[in-house]
Amino acid sequence: MPRVLTGNRLETGDVLWWNGSDWSPRLSDAVAIGDEGEALLARLIAAERINDPALIDVTGAPGAFIPTTTRERVRASGPSVRADLARGSLSVEAI
Amino acid sequence: MYRYDEYDQAIVDARVAEFKDQVSRRLRNEITEDQFKPLRLMNGLYLQLHAYMLRVAIPYGTLSGTQMRMLAHIARKYDRDYGHFTTRQNIQYNWIKLEQFADLLDDLSKVEMHAFQTSGNCIRNISSDQFAGAAADEIADPRPYAELLRQWSTLHPEFSFLPRKFKIAVIASDTDRAAIQLHDIGLQLRRDATGALGFRVYVGGGMGRTPVIGKVVRDFIPVGQYLSYCEAILRVYNRYGRRDNIYKARIKILVTELGIEEFARQVEAEWAGLAPLGLDAPPAEYERIIAQFGEPDYDRNAPDTLDLSDPDFALWVKQNVAAHKQPGYAIATISLKPRGGIPGDASSAQMDLIADLAERYAHDEIRVTHSQNLVLAHVRKADLYALWTALADADLATPNLDLVSDIIACPGMDYCTLANARSIPIAQKIAAKFEALDTQRDIGELKIKVSGCINGCGHHHAGHIGILGVDKKGEEAYQLLLGGSGAEDTSLAKILGPGFDENGIVDAVDKLIGFYRSARSAPDERFLDTYRRLGPAPFKEAVYG
Amino acid sequence: MDNRMNVADRDGQDQVAVAGAPSPALDDAPAKLRFRDDAPFESPIAPLADFLAGGNFAAVRLEPGDDARALLPHFGRLKLIEVAFPRFRDGRGYSSAAVLRQAGYTGELRAAGDVLVDQLGFMRRVGFDSFAPNAPLNLKVVQATLDRYRYVYMKAADGRTPVWALRHG
Ligand code: SF4
Questions:
Q1: Which has the closest alpha carbon to B111: B366, B339, B371?
Q2: How far apart are CA B115 and CA B95, in angstroms?
């Protein structure tokens, strides 16, 4: 199962995904993380600029990844009860 | 209401400056997130699923129009135009940025507000009765004593790194509207045989993973000494509360493991050493604070009659208005549970309106209730109709207080990083199922409480019907509990049977209510009383049979 | 109580602990902060069990789970009590300090271990008068922290006047 890297920006709390070279606010930019994931994670944790970084499981293909857990789908879409605040990374219906 | 003097303001200003400094050191990477986290938590700042969440303290749930207007301003300027009133009588914002937090704290401090100790392993915001000062059955206004506790516990040097969070509630009547037996310390103001004022002290109550009803540790502590007595309780807890297991760290576990007699013995021994140290505030300080909670300037000629010819208004009065101790006045509850709404949420426009209405009609006071509604405590009966009209125009006059659609729900997995399942959609679906007000009124008082995880912020253990979100192999699932109460007849809800998915839990509630309506002994026998009379078996049969 | 620092390096050189960044070289001062005028006491510090077993010690170390009251009969021969903070989140040491001061101990009371600058204000209030942090502290931040609060709400071991006393003279 593919994995992507996610976290929240220290300064703003914004939800982010790793696009291969930087952080993006869109899940659709996320790249699948291979064996280098743990090392990348360790480096990011030590840098102390991204909070709660984590590797999460997703299904589907790049550009249209869907996280396997409800929690991560909610993070990608925004609160399911506030469609007006939807983040656009994932539709609220996909939760 | 209590107003800050120069000392209160200086302490808040210093605390704000301190946290600004801590934030800037974090942003410069001079401290790690691990070191910073407890500091930000002690300022009410969490990292949730979507952003930082800020919990602003509303001491004992009381605020002025000016303060409410500031809460609206915060929602507009720093958040997404709304806030969420919580079961702890506080307000939470869901989209806060750390880099704007210093400005936000400055804004709050301009109206004598802050976010101190709304999280972290310290003494949290003190809660109290939302009808304080207005209820006919109270011995005295409990809030001056809550304010003294607020001051005593603010930046307490010995108790800022407790084993776990610590919650205190204060009431002054036999009717318990603050669930004091489900707090770490619950204080009930009363008189002894000689007429002297003091507190009955409950200790070790709480919900969460191991729900426990508080026990009486002392039947009477004179008002002049309750602060040093609380200090003794906290010291015993700080020294001996468990720190090896986060799920066993609350004081309730210590009290249970020691037994209440041994715990009380240790507290008394500690207090014997503390009482002579002069830790308690002097009588003049009590008087100063009590004076600030003096009676509002009542209109003594206010007519004590009400024109109920408008049937919709009459419905609202019957459901949402309570008796006031002053003739000609009434207590009005503003429902934050409108049809299709999110329990406890209010927009900035609604907050502004409520601020205006409080100033115009309610002696400039607003209360937050633990069931996530708001209260205007001192309204002239003659003004009720105008108040209701204005509230109704803003979708704030749903006449559903204590009815099936007045559901408590924690933020759940729509916001909360600890959640197993969503809470808000469950509350919305149940409310939608019983949309017709006639049906709701026929069902009568029914307290449904929904938590998204075992932490129990939605008070599911105190629900007549409690719903708990659990994780079932990565899927959201819900447990069903029955028979809880957070009132003076406190009881803990018990699990009825196997859990459900989202639609299953709504159907199960429907079946429970259907059975209750067929089984109640009289139209006014409450759901809870039918359950207590019949026991769980027939309810279980109705749901699972 | 006097919050002036009695530290070896008064020349204003900052001791900065920055995660991941090189720290400026420390001068020869130990990373120790002391708020007493008597001479520092430098001799072996005994664990509580050894101390109570009767060795000839004038300094003892309390772990978080140790009962500070076990020392009450021995104040006469104690010059230093060191209270260990293995993790800053474990707050038992605050009560140990409060208990000792409340019982009349006037010797040096040192907080040692995971002692962070943001805890110093609380620690001073419960009666600590010296500090041995694992990681060096930025002395400017230390000073700012200790000077921060002009007023306090409640009485504690440091003897500061609570605001209720100021309000009512
Ligand atoms: S009960 Fe659980 S899910 Fe709900 S707000 Fe509390 S911690 Fe979050």
A1: B366
A2: 15
pLDDT number for residue B70: 98
pLDDT attached to residue C90: 97
DSSP letters along B233-247, please? HHHHHHHHS--S-GG
Task: List the pLDDT tens digit at each of the 545 positions of chain B.
Answer: 999 999 999 999 999 999 999 999 999 999 999 999 999 998 999 999 999 999 999 999 999 999 999 999 999 999 999 999 999 999 999 999 999 999 999 999 999 999 999 999 999 999 999 999 999 999 999 999 999 999 999 999 999 999 999 999 999 999 999 999 999 999 999 999 999 999 999 999 999 999 999 999 999 999 999 999 999 999 999 999 999 999 999 999 999 999 999 999 999 999 999 999 999 999 999 999 999 999 999 999 999 999 999 999 999 999 999 999 999 999 999 999 999 999 999 999 999 999 999 999 999 999 999 999 999 999 999 999 999 999 999 999 999 999 999 999 999 999 999 999 999 999 999 999 999 999 999 999 999 999 999 999 999 999 999 999 999 988 999 999 999 999 999 999 999 999 999 999 999 999 999 999 999 999 999 999 999 999 999 999 999 99
Q: Which two tokens stand for residue B134?
A: 């207005």
Say which residue the tokens 């209510």 belong to: B513
Which residue in chain A is spatially nearest to C21 when comparing CA positions?
A47
Q: Do A71 and B419 touch (CB under 8 A)?
A: yes
Its ipTM equals 0.95
Interatomic CA distance for residues B41 and C7, integer angstroms: 32
* B446 vs B458: CA distance, rounded Å: 15
Delineate the domains of chain B, giving CATH numbers in brackets: 6-109 (3.90.480.20), 142-291 (3.30.413.10), 311-393 (3.90.480.10), 408-544 (3.30.413.10)
Mutate which of B207, B418, B459 for ligand 1 pocket (most atoms within 8 A of beta carbon):
B418
Whole-prediction pTM value? 0.94
Domain residue spans in chain A? 3-68
Rounded to an integer, what is the distance from CA B69 to the centroid of its chain? 21
Chain C residue whose CA is closest to A43: C20
Place of tokens 């020294």: B239
Amino acid found at C58: A
Helices (H), B114-194: 143-153
CA distance C141 to C120: 10
Angle CA(B161)–CA(B167)–CA(B171) in degrees, nearest 5?
150
Tell whether C19 is within 8 A of chain A (Cβ). yes
Rg (CA), chain A: 13
Q: Can you read off the two tokens belonging to residue B183?
A: 């707090």
B368/B86 Cα distance (integer angstroms)? 8
Contact B125, B89 (CB under 8 A): yes
What count of CB pairs under 8 Å joins B to C? 118
Helices marked H in B396-448: 424-433, 437-443
Residues in contact with ligand 1 (CB, 6 Å cut-off)? B 410-412, 416, 418-419, 451-453, 455-458
Q: To 10 degrees, what angle do helices B502-519 and B527-534 make?
A: 80
Pocket test for ligand 1, best of B410, B424, B470, B479 (most atoms within 8 A of CB): B410
Contact yes or no for B29 and C20 at CB 8 A:
yes
**Cβ atoms B459, B423 nearer than 8 A:** no
| Residue scoring higher pLDDT (C20 or B324) | B324
Partners for C (CB, 8 Å, 3+ pairs)? A, B
Asked if residues B125 and B59 have their Cβ atoms less than 8 Å apart, the reply is: yes
Following DSSP, what letter does each residue of B95-123 receive, concatenated? EE-GGGHHHHHHHHHHTT---TTSSSSSB
Cross-strand pairs, C112: C84, C132
Locate the chain C residue with the closest alpha carbon to B154.
C153
| Residue B392 Cα, gap to closest chain A Cα (Å) | 23
